[in-house]
Design goal:
20% of the residues lie in helices and 46% in strands. By secondary structure, the protein is of the alpha+beta class. The chain has one domain: outer membrane lipoprotein receptor (LolB), chain A, CATH 2.50.20. The radius of gyration is 20 Å and the shape is globular.
């Protein structure tokens, strides 16, 4: 009877052990497909610029990242420049189309999103050291392409589902479950048109929408530049202070 119990227990544990190993294997292959861990670790700064299209609306954008955990995002609309930024401690924004030209601290929810955007490597790289949790949850398809599906519970408590192409091991889609003021919001982001820049692959076409929505925000990347000399002042809140 004990032998039978042991056999049943081992069979029951195999999927659990396999999932943990498989998740890490998929992440390792994803990192290798993106250019390899050594190359990603050489990435000290990043500037991505392009265009935004939502229906008939058009705008330009620039996102700049710098280690460790700094980000500045600009949206240029009819000559006005909106800014969202995080310098590793303080998250702030400037919203000129709301009549505000001075920098203000952002809400706790917006701060959380900026902290996630500030991760220049992406959440899968060194995920354990960032207090994220990853589970392999099987296969799924993205527009007919077979993908591995990973559930990533971020340190913030938000959840992301990564769809990794079973052939290229690049990300094709990320589903987000965002807790905003006590309400969970579901969004989807699609990635495509990968191109190599300085030995690393970046998506040059990105589309986002609320989950199930047919109208997507389309980002067309015009240029990716790496390891630029970006001053820390670029990410710091103008004027005195700001708080964590």
């Amino acid at each position: 009877m004990l032998d039978r119990f042991f056999a049943v227990a081992v069979v029951g544990l195999i999927p659990i052990l396999g999932q943990a190993q498989t998740a890490d294997e998929i992440i390792a292959k994803n990192i290798q497909a993106r250019g390899g861990l050594e190359r990603i670790k050489t990435l000290q700064s990043l500037r991505v610029s392009g265009r935004i299209a939502i229906g008939g609306f058009r705008a330009a954008f620039v996102q700049e990242n710098k280690r460790p955990f700094k980000v500045r995002e600009e949206q240029i609309i009819q000559g006005m420049v909106g800014i969202d930024a995080y310098d590793g401690k303080t998250a702030w924004h400037v919203v000129p189309w709301e009549g505000r030209k001075d920098a203000d601290l952002v809400s706790a929810d917006d701060r959380k999103a900026l902290v996630q955007d500030a991760d220049i490597e992406g959440q899968l790289v060194d995920y354990r050291n960032k207090d994220h949790r990853v589970e392999y949850v099987g296969h799924d398809s993205v527009e007919g392409t077979d993908c591995y599906k990973l559930k990533v519970t971020l340190a913030s408590g938000d959840v992301r589902y990564y769809y990794i192409d079973a052939d290229s091991f690049l990300e094709l889609k990320v589903e987000n479950e965002l807790n905003i003021r006590g309400t969970v919001r579901y969004t989807e982001t699609y990635y495509g048109d990968y191109e190599k820049v300085d030995g690393m692959y970046f998506p040059f076409a990105i589309e986002s929408c609320a989950k199930g929505d047919s109208e997507r925000v389309k980002l067309t990347i015009d240029k990716v530049a790496v390891n630029l000399a970006l001053p820390d002042s670029l990410f710091a809140m103008p004027g005195a202070g700001g708080s964590k």
